[in-house]
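B., you asked whether I could sanity-check this one before it goes into the benchmark set. Here's the sequence:
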Amino acid sequence: QVQLVESGGGLVQPGGSLRLSCVASGSAFDFYAIGWYRQAPGKEREGVACISSSGGSTYYADSVEGRFTISRDTGKNTVTLQMNTLKVEDTAVYYCKAYVGRDYWGQGTQVTVSA
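And here's what the prediction gave me:
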């Protein structure tokens, strides 16, 4: 069993920054990769970034490459998504997900980028 709780969303102007956190509890945090996904109104959920269990490998969607950074802190069971130079099109509910035999999702956190 894995429980994931996201936080850090909010309203920000274009060009601004936000830092999302995903805190995990339950199964050993060191043994699974975690990904960030987002879903905008009327659109399908899409992958944004992923980090391996060791933190040594990361993946970014083309749309966020160079602007977002994913990292993990094993001591705090936390995966962070630092989002810089935010655009209106980054507006979405952001979710973190872990695969431990099956997918586990957090409840999501709303990110709104608007002037």
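One thing to flag: The chain has a mean pLDDT of 95. Otherwise nothing jumped out at me.
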